[in-house]
Amino acid sequence: MTDYLLVIALGAIALGAVAFPFLAGTDRYDDPAELDADIARYREALDAGTVCARCRHANAPDARFCGDCGRALDE
User: Fold this and answer.
1) Which of 5, 6, 11, 66 could form a disulfide with 52 if both were Cys (CB 3.0 to 4.6 A apart)?
2) Is pLDDT of 28 > 80?
3) What is the pLDDT of residue 25?
4) Is the four-CA dihedral 46, 50, 54, 55 of positive or negative sign?
5) Phi, psi (5° rounding) for residue 68?
6) Which whole number is the average pLDDT over 62-71?
7) Which has more confidence, 39 or 74?
8) What secondary structure does DSSP assign to the chain, as a single string?
9) What percent of the chain shows pLDDT beyond 90?
10) For residue 50, what are the CA distances in angstroms to 28, 34, 69, 70?
């Protein structure tokens, strides 16, 4: 009986893992221009050295602290 319940539980977990992307909606960007703008912002932060080492947030080129987690960017 315990083995039967374990198989059912594992099956439910597997089904949930497979169905999650379809049910959650994986489209972060509705417009390709939004994606291009986000990529450009991240590249600008990489060039300026203002990508946070802790959370990887792309900050403005003149930022001294991370806008997401608050860490000092010069550390």
Assistant:
1) 66
2) no
3) 64
4) negative
5) -100, -50
6) 94
7) 39
8) -HHHHHHHHHHHHHHHHHHHHHHH-----SSHHHHHHHHHHHHHHHHHT-B-TTT--B--TT-SB-TTT--BTT-
9) 52
10) 23, 21, 13, 12
Amino acid occupying residue 65:
F
Q: Return the structure tokens found at 45.
A: 């932060």
Q: Which of 12, 47, 13 is nearest to 62 (CA)?
A: 47
Q: Which amino acid is at 14?
A: A
Burial status of residue 61 (CB atoms within 10 A of its CB: 0-12, 13-18, 19 or more):
exposed
Q: How many CB atoms lie within 10 A of CB 45?
A: 20
| Token pair recorded at residue 43 | 């590249």
CB 39 within 8 A of CB 50: no
